[in-house]
């Protein structure tokens, strides 16, 4: 590889700040700020058509993440609000207990 090709590859490579993992902070404002910081950096790095594709990809990824999270929360809520089962539960793996037939409430059989 020649030096000219090597220089061209390095100058076209996106800054590492665009690909680093998200911050570990619990602060919502920090997360939103990080998104805008990276979008601004991408706007400076890429031409307008490429930047438009980046923004479209970010919006699609955001929409997908929101739908997945909404489905997860709905499943949790559905599990919590499900009516409690009443009556006898029958299953193939139920614990089997020997029934001796004697009921202490029965009168003395004489």
Radius of gyration equals: 31 Å
The computed structural class is mainly alpha
Helix content: 55-70%
Order of helices and strands: HHH
Mean pLDDT value: 79
What distance lies between the first and last C-alpha atoms, to the nearest angstrom?
A: 106 Å
* Strands, total number: 0
Largest sheet: none
User: Which stretches are poorly predicted, pLDDT < 50 over at least 5 residues?
Assistant: 1-10
Beta-strand content bin: under 5%
Indicate the overall shape.
Answer: rod-shaped
State the helix count: 3
Give your account of this protein's structure:
The protein is mainly α. Helices cover 56% and strands 0% of the residues. It is built from 3 helices and no strands.
Write the layout of secondary structure elements.
Blueprint: H1 3-12, H2 28-45, H3 48-81
Helix pairs in contact: 2-3
In short:
This protein has 110 residues and is an all-alpha fold. The longest helix is centred in the middle third of the chain and has 34 residues, at 48-81. The protein has helices at 3-12, 28-45, 48-81.
Key phrases:
110 residues; mainly alpha; 3 helices; disordered N terminus
């Amino acid at each position: 590889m020649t030096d000219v090709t090597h220089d061209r590859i390095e100058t076209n490579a996106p800054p590492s700040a665009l690909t680093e993992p998200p911050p570990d902070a619990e602060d919502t404002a920090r997360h939103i700020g990080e998104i805008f910081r990276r979008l601004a950096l991408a706007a400076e790095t890429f031409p307008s058509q490429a930047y438009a594709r980046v923004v479209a990809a970010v919006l699609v990824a955001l929409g997908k993440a929101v739908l997945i999270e909404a489905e997860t929360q709905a499943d949790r809520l559905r599990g919590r609000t499900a009516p409690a089962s009443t009556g006898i539960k029958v299953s193939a793996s139920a614990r089997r207990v020997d029934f001796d037939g004697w009921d202490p409430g029965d009168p003395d059989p004489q």
